[in-house]
Amino acid sequence: NRAMMELYDFFTAAITETIHATIAGELPEPDQQAHAAIVDAIAANDPERAVAAVRAFMAPVLAQLERLLSQ
Q: I need a labelling partner for 35 at 20 to 30 A (CA). Which of 14, 47, 51, 61 fits?
């Protein structure tokens, strides 16, 4: 269906751009500790800590994306 193809094309382009920005060093790459904090919170069945860990994980990336998009 046409709508699904357009949606697929949109997400493909967005993901491709994000990958290129990450490889080019324009986006920060969270470290192993940030990944571990998410896994540990999930393993501990602690949703509040998991949410906080994901937010901390994504904050630098989202801030940089916002800066890049505002240029």
A: 14
**pTM given for the model:** 0.62
Kind plus residue range of the DSSP H or E element containing 13? helix 2-23
DSSP 3-state of 35: helix
Contacts of 61 (CB under 8 A, 6+ apart): 27, 28, 30
Sequence-ordered list of residues with C-beta below 8 angstroms from that of 29, at least 6 positions apart, any chain: 22
The model's pLDDT over 19-32, given as tens digits with 9 standing for 90+, comes to 787 777 777 888 89
CA–CA separation, 39 vs 46, rounded Å? 10
